[in-house]
Amino acid sequence: MRLLFPSDRFLFCFSIIMMVLVTGSVLASPSKTVIKLSPQPLTQHTVELPLNEYHALAILALKKVSSSQVPRPYNAPLHSFTALPTNNDQLIDINNNNVRDDYERLLLTQYKRPEYVAMGVLAAAHWDRLAATHTQKDRIPLITAITLITNNIAINQCYYSLQQIDNTLVSPILHYFNTEQRIVIKQQSEEKLLRIIALSPFPITFDPQPCQRFTLLAESMLQTTFSAN
Hints:
Elements: H1 6-28, H2 53-62, H3 101-110, H4 114-132, H5 142-163, H6 173-176, H7 180-198, H8 212-222
Helix pairs in contact: 2-4, 4-5, 4-7, 4-8, 5-7
């Protein structure tokens, strides 16, 4: 049996201490930073995005909204006597996807997240239905009036809530109702629906989580139900 002299004991203890320190430093070292190709995730507290990227892309594919096919501003064909539209309220939808071209260009150029573009598409579909009531001659059922008004309020509240987290987000409502005539149609449609709701004997309740209304609109458009996860 070999005896350890003081110098040997010192070297032995020193080697043990170094092994512990090296092992600890390896375990405590931070992991490498992951480079993300998508925008930085939102810092979410009480508000979450109503759509994930998968559902957002499904909506954009369904509506044929793509950054590779941004509708160009309207131009009359060469050697054509067709005049350029002089009425800014004229609906132009060259790619026939039921999204007004100027609004579609705005969504694709202003928003970098597909979730935001899809939300703008869903909001436009709702605003289309809202504006359609302006000239509707048939009786509007009470449930339809309530749904349109509560959707309207929820959409506005959702954008406002998300803006508290992401100050780069701007609601597209002023780009959709971007002329005096469109604003008047919006206001008169809302007044028409509110007069119907005023006759209701039932109280009107509003969703405490307004962004969930976008989820319902997306489920309706995609004709599916999203998983709770």
